[in-house]
Amino acid sequence: MTNQTADLDWRDGRVPISTQFDDPYYSLDNGLAETRHVFLDGNDLPARFVGDFQIAELGFGTGLNLLVTWALWDQAGRPGRLKFTSFEAFPMEVEDMRTALKHFPEVAEFAACLLAHWVPGAGPTQLPDGPILDVIIGDARQTVPAWDNAADAWFLDGFSPAKNPELWGTDLMRAVGEHTRPGGTAATYSAAGHVRQSLALAGFTVNRTPGFGRKRHMTQARMPNAE
Ligand SMILES: C[S@@+](CC[C@H](N)C(=O)[O-])C[C@H]1O[C@@H](n2cnc3c(N)ncnc32)[C@H](O)[C@@H]1O
């Protein structure tokens, strides 16, 4: 897989749909509320924002998950540094990100800052008054195992497992587990049995919990604390 950019269609000129994966980047109904429910609540955030905190994500897409996280971090007003590392194979063009993100006025100030600094693959970048953002370009099946850090919380946000199986396989979930701190967590909107099983094989304790909107269930996973 070489570095390519994302090919998009738009639903109502508003929600980007990947033509490659035939799937939307987030809920057609309310992407921001979905992010809060699945990835923030699903990882018990912002309650766990105490001191420095490392988030890792599969699939940066528009950056919406980053922006919603940043807004909650900002509101929480706790000391410490937020690091947000995302693994992305097909970075979006900045103008496509702008088109998508303008529909989320709640995070407009953070979006403006992200878009002003968006350079795919630039390496760790301190966003002004914000997180240190590192979007690692390439196929996550290679880039996650090679990552030299570990996360307190993972956002597992590939396209649906049926359409994007590359981001949900057992080997990648094992790499996610190996790059999770003791007591760390992972969350995803998917409740597919094989995803939960792969997370369990990776060492997580896995729970099926109420999903967002029309999705009945989602998945929350936690690594045991250190002995
Ligand atoms: C559902 S979208 C993520 C939405 C995103 N979190 C947001 O806030 O907009 C899934 C993302 O996974 C990326 N992706 C798909 N296959 C991948 C792979 N093998 N490695 C890394 N990223 C991949 C896609 O390019 C896409 O950006």
What does this entry show, briefly?
With 227 residues, this protein is of the alpha/beta class. The chain is 28% helix and 26% strand.
How many alpha or pi helices?
A: 7
**Shape summary:** globular
Task: Estimate what percentage of residues fall within beta strands.
Answer: 25-35%
The average pLDDT is 95
Percent range of helical residues: 25-40%
Subunit arrangement of the protein = single chain
Major beta sheet, specifics?
Answer: 8 strands, mixed
The name CATH uses for the topology is Rossmann fold
Structural class: alpha/beta
Walk me through the structure.
With 227 residues, the protein is α/β, with parallel strands linked by helices. It has one domain: Vaccinia Virus protein VP39 (Rossmann fold). Helix content is 28%, strand content 26%. The chain is built from 7 helices and 11 strands. It has helices at residues 31-40, 64-76, 94-101, 108-117, 140-143, 170-178, 193-201, and strands at residues 8-11, 15-18, 23-24, 53-58, 82-88, 125-126, 132-137, 151-156, 180-188, 205-210, 217-222. The mean pLDDT is 95. Residues 6, 25-26, 59-65, 87-90, 139-141, 157-159, 164, 166-167 line the site of S-adenosylmethionine (SAM). S-adenosylmethionine is lined by residues 6, 25-26, 59-65, 87-90, 139-141, 157-159, 164, 166-167.
